[in-house]
Every structure is written in structure tokens, then in C-alpha cells.
Design goal:
The chain is of the alpha+beta class. The chain has one domain (about 5-95): HIT-like (HIT family, subunit A), CATH 3.30.428. The protein is built from three helices and five strands; from the N terminus they run H-E-E-E-H-H-E-E. It has a five-stranded antiparallel β-sheet, covered by helices on one side. A hairpin with a 3-residue loop joins strand 1 (about 20) and strand 2 (about 25-30). The longest helix has 14 residues, at about 60-70. The radius of gyration is 13 Å and the shape is globular. It starts with a helix and ends in a 9-residue tail after the last strand. The structure holds adenosine monophosphate (AMP) and zinc ion. The site of zinc ion has 6 residues, from helix 1.
């Protein structure tokens, strides 16, 4: 997608602090971190949301990369959260599927 921020990051056209890369995914630091570790994992291919990612057979790749990021960032044992925001009530702003990997301190669980 020509007008997609995360497609541009995947193509190297917009800079990002990459922490991990696989043939199908890219992980980079969130520009506005909400936790000591806040990394976004995207599929390199454009897919709109988590459902599209699952239908393309790429959800497992994104989750494996999330786990690899947690290991690299040293939070695999202390714990972390993997979140897919979907729709306006979740505050979603970028419409290229992405998982947030959050950790590095105790995380609040706000349900509503
Ligand atoms: P969401 O609300 O789930 O759509 O999350 C989008 C995330 O992308 C937010 O946490 C933003 O801080 C993050 N973000 C936006 N632009 C960039 C960028 N250029 N590099 C890294 N993260 C970004
Ligand atoms: Zn895209």
C-alpha cells in the first residue's frame, strides 16, 4: 500500500529502530512508548488487521516474532503483554496489522 506508514517502515523508506527481523516480519520500537519495552511487530506484507493476518497464515509468524523480541529484550521471564488493537474503542490509529509487545515493569490490566 503506497500510503501506509508501516508499509513504508517495512520498505525502509521511513526510519525505525529495528530490534528484530524475519523473512516475513519486522519488529521496531514504538515511537511513543507506554512501557520500558514497547515494540511493534508487523507483517512485511500489508494486512489490515489481526483477522486478515490469521487468514493469510501470518498470525503465527507475528506471535513467534513477539516471543523472540521478548527474549531479546530480556522480558521473557519477567513477563509481557501482546496486544492487537482493533477498531475505534481500542484507540487504533494505524491500519496495517501490528502487535504491541509491552513489558519491563508490572502492567496494569484495564478492562474498560
Ligand atoms: P495502534 O493504536 O494500535 O494503531 O498503534 C499504533 C502505534 O504506532 C502507536 O503506539 C504509535 O505510537 C506507533 N507509531 C506511530 N508512528 C510510528 C513510527 N513512525 N514509528 C514507530 N511507532 C509509531
Ligand atoms: Zn501497510
Amino acid at each position: 500500500m503506497s500510503d501506509c506508514l508501516f508499509c513504508k517502515i517495512a520498505a525502509g523508506e521511513i526510519p525505525a529502530t529495528v530490534v528484530h527481523e524475519t523473512p516475513t516480519t519486522l519488529a521496531f520500537r514504538d515511537i511513543n512508548p507506554h512501557a520500558p519495552v514497547h515494540v511493534l511487530v508487523i507483517p512485511k506484507e500489508h494486512h489490515e488487521d489481526a483477522l486478515a493476518l490469521a487468514e493469510a497464515g501470518l498470525a503465527g509468524d507475528v506471535l513467534s516474532t513477539a516471543a523472540a523480541v521478548a527474549a531479546k529484550e530480556g522480558i521473557a521471564e519477567s513477563g509481557y503483554r501482546v496486544t492487537f488493537n482493533t477498531g475505534p474503542d481500542a484507540g487504533r490509529t494505524v491500519f496495517h496489522a501490528h502487535a504491541h509487545v509491552l513489558g519491563g515493569h508490572p502492567l496494569e490490566m484495564r478492562l474498560g
